[in-house]
Prior knowledge:
single chain, 5-stranded mixed β-sheet
Amino acid sequence: MSWSATACTVALAELAQFPGRFRPVLHALTEAARAYADAPGDAAFSWQRSETRAGRTSPRPVPRAFNQLALGSYNEKLVIESIREAGALSRVEIAEQTGLTPQAVSRITRNLLTAGLLAEDGRQSAGAGKPRVPLRLRPDAASAIGVHLDPEMISVVAVDLCGGILDRRQMHLFERRDPGWCLEHMTRLALESAAVARQASEALLGVGVAVPGPVDARAGIVLDPPLFDGWEQVELKAELIERLGTAVIVEKDATAAAIGERWLGAADRAGDFVYLYLGAGAGSGAFLNGDVYRGTTGNAGEMGELCAIRTGLLTDEGGPRMVAECAPISAVVDQAREAGLVVPQGDGAYDWVCEAAARGDDRAVTVLENVARTVALGAVGIIDLLDVELLVVGGPAVLPSVADLYLGQISAAVNRFPVARRVRDVHVAQSRPNQAAEVGAASSVFHSAFTPRLSPRGRSARGASPHA
Length: 468
């Protein structure tokens, strides 16, 4: 086997195994080979993989001083965050909550009023002295598009700055789920919603896309999610940027749902929490220390193996085996049929089982409780690992008719089995936003633009705010 064939074989194998990490390495090798082919003479070809010299992981950013521009941007976002959580605040209340001086608050709010992000409410008297004027976010100041790609459908929403739904569109995926087909219809639906959003708001900030994992969130690449044949390495972000002509953020669906909960959940979602997302699969997103936690590659929150460890399911090699109940919708339908229920075929089968459970059918109730108990074991692992006191449950599987059933089983488990159960009560709450993933995807655009975070040279991991 020639050296070139050997190199190609090794490169293709590593590209398939680690597509996000190896793509820049393969690009560098290709460029070096092209330069060698174009060079005159008979010099030997030489190339050294830069990743080997620098190490496999990206270097951590070096701490730097924050310049005045960065602090100004941070303080503006801090004011926006405080008003968003409270609904409306006077300048005096903003100073009390943020610790900023009255002079700084006056300057910042004046700038935000001029920019059109804030509006003044009617005057409210606070007794003696000058009346306090509450400030609130203007819903029509900005909007964003949220797209959710699910094995069963494509869902798209246009959302205003305060979480109001401006437009909603859906398309079922009955027969085709290949990348070309899905991209075509994601683009069409997003452009239609964007047209509505532009008429209803002053600025369309971008498009957020929620997809099943695994993903390479930094590059916006989808990496062979379950139930999606042909999606081994789809450069979703780059494709949509080219088709839509606007900024695009790609998030794992559970992470997007957590962002939506934070953005629209106001003050009672301001602390740390975990979002347990149940749909075609089961996953989780987390807010820790004031910001969403994505992990190194954007794949934090996978919980199928936690369930497997709890239930003792192992592969032949001794590793955790994926649990069927970690695909709640299909697991409920399959187990209902095994229990003797005559479940209709096709779309709507899961809804049918949930309606049967709501009517009191013992077999349907037993099936849903079994799936919820298994998922709850994974939630126990998450609570033990992260030590949070709030667990939010939502997603397409958590229909209103069976929400109490899911929440009851999960609450019982996370307050009975964790190691620290004697010193911590875990509150299990239902998700606030309808259509959690797509609303969360749109909220991820707002989160990127307006959430206060200090980072080197005033830039966040997602880029600077268009209004900062």
